[in-house]
Amino acid sequence: SKVPRPMKPTIKVIMSKKIPIAVAHGDGIGPEIMKATLHILQEAGAPLDIHSIEIGEQVYNKGILTGIAYNSWEILRHTKAFLKAPITTPQGGGLKSLNVTIRTTLGLYANIRPCISYAPFIATKHPKMDVVIVRENEEDLYAGIEYRQTQDVYKSLKIISRPGSEKIIRYAFEYASHHNRKKVTCFTKDNIMKFSDGLFHKVFNEIAKEYPHIQNDHWIVDIGAAKLADTPEIFDVIVMPNLYGDILSDVAAQISGSVGIAGSANIGDRGAMFEAIHGSAPRRAGQNVANPSALLLGSVLMLLYLEKTLLAERIHNAWLKTIEEGFHTYDIFKEGISKYKMGTQEFALQVIKFLDKKPQHLTPVTYQNKNKFQTIHIHSHSTAAKRELIGVDVFIYTNQNPIKALTTNKWNALSLQMISNRGVKIWPDGQPETFCIDQWRLRFLSKNNLCITKERVLTILEEVSQAGFDSTGTENLYLFDKKPGFS
Fold first, then answer.
1. Phi/psi at 270 (5° precision)
2. Residue 91 has pLDDT above 80, yes or no
3. Which of 273, 346, 319 is nearest to 107 (CA)?
4. What is the pTM (predicted TM-score) of this model?
5. Fewer CB within a 10 Å sphere, N or C end of the chain?
């Protein structure tokens, strides 16, 4: 709030066929790999009008807690795409991830991460791997809604919504349709998180019925992750909530050969951002050794989004030719396979030399009719359910065991039905071995689950306070069409 907002920038409309894009050079190795990528795009004849914006560590250091200058939003709003190098988000200190901020603020709900092996030219145990991770980008734990509630308890809210689930799952099926993919798989943990992950799985089953020409299946995320690491060939397109998608797309990229060769697209209704999936690697900064491949392949996805199909093919095939000819950066260099160890800028020059070549051993890419990155019209399956308030969960802070005091107190507004600690029932019928911390959950319900007013909830909170307990938060308990909306 102490940083003054500058004047909004004016984006000049250039009367030419050039496409305006925003570019952020990033932190760490970011400026080096962006320089290499832009050099290749320029030499390939990409008709781009580049508008640079300042984001990341240098902006955080100016006291701007979002990591992005105010006038950069206007540039992003008036350009067709955003090509972003990796940035460094300072750890801790209440600073939110800039990547998350950009994705959520601009509504970039779909994260697409192709993870493909290039055997035998890049070492991998999975030479036939060709998996696309479609990751939900706006919800889940990445909403970043966190609280410290007691001395020992910190809470993060996991947000899964029906509209958010519908958007990403439908996108996954549409992506499969337009890219000649045969199967879409869903990963969740709905055997444990029956409401949040359960909703994601339910919506997946609903939408899958609209695409009978595409196979579909579901895996619990832990065994699904094990299968992905061991036998990725059995998967084609995998759609996942945000956290699982972030973790497993890195795993998938690494087992395909390296996270240094995986690009990423972030697609929304009103814009798109393209990037490498790896971080800023500050320890490698300034050494001219970083692999620009992931950002370059991210820029190929950008060209497809901008409907520059032939140009995307030309650059991608030149990159494939460079790889199969053994021109490798240090991270993928392997004796007996690689022929030349290249620096960042030298690798870019080699790709430029192959701009009119196609690979002989790796399969050349063709992107005709495969440039469908735009979003899809969404319609909701949800119906209006009758919602009735029947009680409240009250969380209290105390280092003492409160069971005796709570169970002997006379509660007038509502009936105390349960006391739990970290989700484990302590009363009634608790077990003495259960380890407890300093936050307790008290479940109050109306008699016979009858509908109550919110005034009754306020009254029970007053009663909890009068009994000498410190309330740290509440969750209202609702029935939806007579079914509990709580675990």
1. -125, 20
2. no
3. 273
4. 0.90
5. N
